[in-house]
Design brief:
There is one protein chain. Helix content is about 80%, strand content about 0%. The protein is built from 13 helices and no strands. The two termini are about 20 Å apart.
Length: about 300
């Protein structure tokens, strides 16, 4: 069957546009991933230096998962066609960790997290439409618009035009983080079709740590201080981060990339609660409202076919 032109694929309706495209098993996987993701990101924000915290987390996670990675690789091997996706996702994840660390250092958790995660929701369906031949209905287009509107409402600052600072601190780094999330999500969708998810995530963790090592080792004293002050939180994040993403990788095998990424973003509402209440960032009502708009857009994308 010939592929429909891009404009026709953009507006084509599925037979039942209000049916949930995520299977029950995939939904359970992404709910667990959302809780874990919001939790370990909050721990990163509480660290002395978020980038160094993230690197320590990655190193420890690599060590924890190394035996399982080796076992899976010995049993299943590595298909040559998987290697370009592994290399690409390592580069993208390294970018993600660096920009996320910078965003958390400058901005509030309850503001940085929604834009970084929500932008992934807005971009992944569009990229999947172009590169994976997936379809997007008008409901999905509306969902993307709501995500963008919610992100903007969260980061708009009162009196912004008068002092020329339109958006809150850290927003620029959060936007780049969102771009990297969208990019590696599409790469990983194709990557786990060619390599077992356990081996895939193990290689991501190890490769990202090696890529960021020159930056981190140039600040050895700060690195030692980060470990001394936050080792318990680092251990918790090291367990939660790869475990949560592993759940996502398994969910990718059960549902379309756009739906898995969208359903995972229920963590956005959790981030508003955690940041405003637990981290003491305040402004709970406005940030919950903005997060709710983003979540409404997520639901629209998740229901779209």
């Amino acid at each position: 069957m010939a592929t429909l032109p891009l404009p026709q694929r953009l507006v084509r309706l599925a037979p039942n546009p209000y049916s949930v495209a995520v299977s029950p098993t995939a939904l359970l996987l992404v709910i667990g991933a959302a809780v874990l993701h919001a939790g370990w990101n909050a721990l990163v924000k509480r660290g002395t230096d978020p980038l160094l915290f993230l690197w320590c987390t990655g190193v420890l996670a690599s060590l924890l998962y190394l035996p399982f990675t080796v076992l899976v690789l010995l049993r299943h091997g590595v298909r040559p066609e998987a290697l370009p996706f592994v290399v690409a996702t390592i580069i993208l994840h390294s970018t993600y960790f660096f920009t996320l660390g910078r965003a958390y250092r400058l901005g509030d958790y309850s503001l940085v997290y929604p834009v970084a995660r929500g932008l992934g929701v807005a971009l992944v369906p569009v990229l999947a439409l172009v590169f994976l031949d997936e379809t997007l209905s008008p409901l999905g287009v509306l969902g993307i618009a709501l995500v963008v509107a919610g992100i903007f409402s969260l980061h708009w600052r009162g009196g912004a035009w008068s002092d020329r600072r339109v958006l809150a601190p850290g927003t620029g780094w959060a936007l780049v983080t969102g771009l990297s999330i969208a990019a590696y999500s599409l790469v990983d969708k194709a990557g786990v079709a060619r390599l077992h998810p356990v081996a895939y995530i193990g290689l991501i963790e190890l490769g990202s740590c090696l890529a960021l090592m020159p930056v981190v080792l140039s600040r050895r004293q700060d690195l030692q201080r980060e470990w001394r002050q936050n080792r318990a939180s680092i251990v918790a994040a090291a367990i939660g981060s790869p475990t949560g993403y592993l759940l996502v990788l398994f969910a990718f095998q059960l549902s379309k990339a756009a739906y898995v990424v969208a359903a995972r973003e229920m963590s956005i509402v959790l981030s508003a609660l955690i940041g405003s209440v637990w981290l003491g960032e305040g402004d709970l009502r406005r940030r919950l409202a903005g997060a709710a708009v983003v979540l409404a857009g997520v639901i629209g994308v998740a229901l779209a076919r």
